[in-house]
Amino acid sequence: MLVHEFLEESARRMPDKTALLFQDQRFSYKEIDAISNQLAHALIDAGIKRGDRVSILLDNSIESVISIYAVLKASAVFSTLSPTLKSKKLRYILNNSESSFFISNWQKINTVSEAVKDLSFLKLIIMCGKMSDESQCNDERFVGWGKFIDSWPISKPDVLCINIDLANIIYTSGSTGDPKGVMMTHQSMVSAATSIIQYLENTESDIILNVLPLSFDYGLYQVIMSFMFGGTIVLEKSFTFPYVVIEKIIKEKITVFPAVPTIFAILLQLKNLKSINFQHLRCFTNTGAALPVHFINTLKKVFPHVKIYSMYGLTECKRVSYLPPEEIDRIPTSVGKGMPNEEVYIVNENGERVAPGMIGELVVRGANVMKGYWKSPEDTNRVLKPGLYPDERVLYTGDLFKMDDDGFLYFISRKDDLIKTRGERVSPLEIENALYDMDGVGEVAVIALPDEVLGSAIKVFIMKVNDNDLTKKDVIKYCSTHLESFMVPKYVEFVDFFKKTSSGKIDKKVLE
Question: Which domain holds residue 167?
């Protein structure tokens, strides 16, 4: 089946069941399916073709979910982008993907207008919400959401694609500083979601609370999976107001709460947590960064009836492994075994499988592995290498692991210097390039420091120009303005000079 056909099947089986709850608005499966059909018809009439790319720059919302499924129903490819993107990176992604259509919100008009200027391949820009000032936009490609879709039928569009066609391109930081587009087919997305549903033991009675952005594959798949097994997804914009989220957990009888360590850190700091009745909560899931052992122990004390699934994954294959909850007391530092319908193994530098206990690079084999990086064959060939059978390719993760005698995996470190923080992968080069544009900065280096909440914390070292009065606060403020929130450094240190390697590069190995 194709990704969107699971929504259609759930709408056929239980049309009136609540599929999505957002800001106290409830949408049934029948309604989600109907509105996404309308948008799909509108896109088709506007000239969208099979395989066209559509970029979606929205906060978590009903429109973001509708847009995903409408694009798929139109036989096109969606990219959900971080709503915190600045115009420069947004323009790069639109250029790289050659998006024919773009969906965003009038609140982001300044960022969007700057990013889309003179992009001739971009046919139409569909904007949600209300435009406060019509004089802000004189580009004829802009059209309002309601006006665009209202007159179209709710019937299902014709299916033109098959399961090996692309469904999604998700952009992730690359080693060059520019984002790379991870290509996922319908088959790879369905394979990954099916395996996760299987080991999480999801059923139609599950109600998932999602506070994670849909631009983050962990958040995106909460919707994809829920619509596959016929559950209910309660969508929140973020975990910024934790007590509001707690109230929602209780009121809506949430059974599954996916989170990352930063969210668990906030949750466990809340007062009177033990006195709150979480009787319906069935399980926590964690990925993005390893869950600290003391977090696990505290969660088990506060929520003794709730299962904890500690997991590991990466965008290039969605999910790799999970630790069965019954094993978490015995081996809490493990990220478990490979998930169903997937093979994982560890190799040395020659690509040879290593014995248990030996450290090597983790390799993933399965239908969940990406097609490759969009328009980047060299990067693709570096990570997708020959597998067991002729013409088969397997994913070299770039992460160092060891495996015990029972097949349980233990993360050691990354092979490259990409920083994994707040569940996101960050290129140090991207931060460095941004800071080089800041007045007063001479040279700059970015490294990662271990952090049990963030996974890794970003630290910036700066050598000033002419001993100016640049301060740490100035640097943080500048980064907050010019970079996405998860790229803003936690630490800033000024240095008098940098030690250099023989090739003249800053020697990051001596920085700490």
Answer: 3-17+28-185
Question: Model confidence over 286-314: pLDDT tens digits?
Answer: 987 778 888 899 999 999 999 999 999 99
8 Å CB contact between 256 and 208: yes
Per-residue pLDDT reduced to its tens digit, 184-203? 999 999 999 999 999 999 99
Residues 247 and 340 in one domain: yes
Q: Work out whether strand 232-235 and strand 207-210 pair parallel, antiparallel, or are unpaired.
A: parallel
pLDDT digits (tens, 9 = 90+) for 99-151: 999 999 999 999 999 999 999 999 999 999 987 655 567 788 999 999 999 99
Whether residues 359 and 373 fall in one domain: yes
CA dist 157 and 287 (Å) reads 36
Pair 263, 387 in one domain: yes
Structure tokens of 32?
Answer: 């989600």
- For the cut 70, the answer to whether the pLDDT of residue 273 exceeds it is yes
CA distance to 214, 272, 354, 429, per residue, from 449 (Å): 27, 32, 29, 16
Q: Which CATH number do you get for residue 67?
A: 3.40.50.980
HEC-encoded secondary structure of 148-187: HHCCCCCCCCCCCCCCCCEEEEEEECCCCCCCEEEEEEHH
